[in-house]
Amino acid sequence: MKKLFPKSLLAIVLCCSAGIRVSAQNKDTVAPAPDQLPAAGLSLPLGNSQPQPYEIADITITGTQYLDKSLLVSLSGLNVGDKIVYPGGDQFAKAIQALWGQRLFANVAIYVTKIEDGKIWLEIDLQERPRLNNFVFRGVKKSETEELIKKAALRKGSVVTESMKQNAIGIISKHYADKGFRNAVVTINERVDTAQVNAADLVITVVKGGKAKVNDIFIIGNNNIADSKVKKKMKGTKERTRFTLYPDSEPVWSDSAELQENYWKTFGFLYPSRTLDQLDPYFRFKLFSSAKFNEGKYTEDKEKVIAYYNTQGYRDAVMVRDTTYTSRNGGVNVSMEINEGKKYYFGNITWKGNSRYNDSLLTRVLGIKKGDVYNQEMLSKRLLSSEGGDIGGMYMDYGYLFFRADPVEIGIHGDTIDYEIRISEGPQATIKEVRIAGNEKTNEHVIRRELRTLPGEKFSRTDLIRSNREIANLGFFNPEKIGMDPVPNIQDGTVDINYTVEEKANDQLELSAGWGGYIGLTGTLGVTFNNFSLRNIFRKETWDPLPSGDGQKLSVRVSSNGKAYRSYNFSFTEPWLGGKKRNQFSVSFYSSYQNPNAYSAYIYGSTLSNSAYFKVLGGSVSLGKQLKWPDDYFTLIYSLNYQQYKLKNYNYFNIPGFNSGTSNNINIKLTLARSSVNQQIYPSSGSNFMLSGQFTPPYSVFNPSRDYKLEAISEQFNFIEYQKYRFNAEWYVPLTRPKGSDNKVFVMKVAAKFGYIGRYNSRTTLSPFGRFELGGDGLSNFAIYDRDIISQRGYPVYYTSDPKQNQESGQPTGYEGFTVFNKYVMELRYPFSLNPSSTIFGLAFIEAANGYRDVKDYNPFRLRRSAGLGMRFYLPMFGLLGFDYGIGFDRIRPGSGMKDAAKFTFMLGFEPE
């Protein structure tokens, strides 16, 4: 024993110097900590403690179940036939480090199992870490679990390590901290899965706690910008609204260094010398809930604060320091210290390199004068902006696609900065190729004819933007996914333009049933093909369900409730007659029949003859031409219209002597319209104007000796005559900047409408046809006698049999209709979804309208007022669905509530007038 002890001790020392722990009698080893070199057990030959070279005769791997043993031998760096020094060599330490670095094992040990004739046999014993068989989340919702799995990157079958668990805890904690749960606690417990060999499950428990709320935001150093203005820029970090209660006496100031330090920690940088009791009344009364604290938004808000300072002339402003800490009530306090620096102003601005435009014009468009507050952001936008009205836009509209403007500071005099704007105009770019992609259904020529960017012409940014608008207004594509990508080639001074579109369903099916006024329950079946192709009508392979792709419109509609009422409508529109110019050609036919027996008892309290009816047969042909002056947003439309009305025992108009007979209405209508809205379904900018005049032949002028009023009323209305004028105006004004991936924006719609129908002279009687009706939803099925139906939410159709009420309100007795009307509308709109497959937006409205029996009764200030809320749903197959709940303020009577003055209206297919 005395002999062996020194040798064993020497072997242990030598092995420790190689970084391994020796176990001479057994293979038991202690698993090392992750940051320590793992243990190795070595069986040493007794009686031989001197280092000697050996050749590795064999290497065996034990303890593994899943891993390839030959691969593990290769990773260890030890190979059969290698020469090693034992004991005392460093090969074992290196092998252990290599295997441990794979992060696959809980313990690594190397044993010498045999030494003979200069050869050595080794055993590498590995303890594999368990594999992840399953994991569960506790304390979170199912929807949150799916998101956490993606973020934490937990995969079944992967090796469970401490590093994996700590990484998952960090990711999950940060995820909830970003959402405002700053005190979220995440724990991961590992448990053995007995159903699988060497498998483990992870139980991830999340205790979110309450969301951290911003209590107070303290700002110091802002000597020139008020706290309120700074906080206003922090849209993602808002402090709670509160009332402050000031103490009755002045607070006592303290010179205690200890108290000052205490308040520095408690309140950040505010009131460092007031005691807690003195400050408490200022912050005791908190009302309303504050905004949730979000670390990511807070970081963005700090950048916005400095950017705001820069726009106010403080270009040297910096955030000296900031901190967030938990307040006494559990909320989050934010403290910031700002160094504003000096306020700067613009000095002289000179131009260099400009040849297309002179200095004075560029200075006028730039709109920055000497002495204006320095604002680098404004200067950059005035030089080049996507919003228009900039210097770059002027150049690009004349083909200078390669234009560049570099503002260079050439002198700083105190607080004044002089600039020289160096312009590189470059060559005028000519459009070389125009490519279109994404149109799977619509033929390319339908898109190409709408483009303002044509090969061979000079590039124009305005034309590019206008082309986008024209494609969107086709209604065949998702307006949010229209792409325009100019690809300039400065070598030859050309530019290629690539347009991309995304088709959307736009054919519409109408299948509905509704209560049509006094007709009763009416069913409607209609179909509209908005991208029809007439030229392929005889090509069977193009039918799906009808030939499409040429941008034409075909509409067929049938309404009926049996014997009482039926109506047929057909229309066809070719937007480019001839294919070369925007000449819109339309033709339509319609027929309707109404039997009053279905509702005569309701109206008259009696039963009329079964042979009573009212028939309408009509058609129209129109041609619209796009104008170039005053601008190409204008369109002039000519239309020729004919309607024939046949009455038999029909007393609905309540005109003595006019219940049977035939009336003919031949008229020409001229319409001047201008539309600059950016899209059809949810316009966010632009306007619509329409002025029309509708004229029948002036039969009475051709027969000056004929006294029409001496004739029977049915004879007077044989060929009716009138002149009719309409004016509509609509404006769409965006109130906010676009937000989100689909560019949602609040929009204000303002509209004004006016109509008048009159006679050519006093010798004739104005017929009931062509007049105006007001009130209701504007979709009354029973109004089949060629009248303009002007809706007003919150009111039923203006009708009463009370002569006194008629006199007070300006309504006609019976149903003669109005000859003059005006209407004003204001709506605030916001889109909930701009997805082309389901566009949804809400609105709040106020309206004022009225109708008048005669022009002498017209009073534009005697209006019926209403207000309410509504929703619009645009579904490609059904068109526009609308619901409105309006309150008619002039329907409120003493003793009645608001509910009695409210009315719910529904619309289908189109927005009523």
Automatic annotation (TrEMBL):
It comes from Chitinophaga filiformis. Keywords: Cell outer membrane, Membrane, Signal, Transmembrane. The keyword Ribosomal protein does not apply. Residues 1-26 form the signal peptide. Gene3D superfamilies: membrane protein fhac, membrane protein fhac: a member of the omp85/tpsb transporter family. Residues 130-209, 213-341, 344-426, 430-504 form the POTRA domain. This is Outer membrane protein assembly factor. It comes from the Bacteria. PANTHER family: SORTING AND ASSEMBLY MACHINERY SAMM50 PROTEIN FAMILY MEMBER (PTHR12815), TRANSLOCATION AND ASSEMBLY MODULE SUBUNIT TAMA (PTHR12815:SF47). The lineage of its organism: Bacteria, Pseudomonadati, Bacteroidota, Chitinophagia, Chitinophagales. InterPro entries: BamA/TamA_POTRA, D15-like, OM_assembly_BamA. The keyword Signal applies.
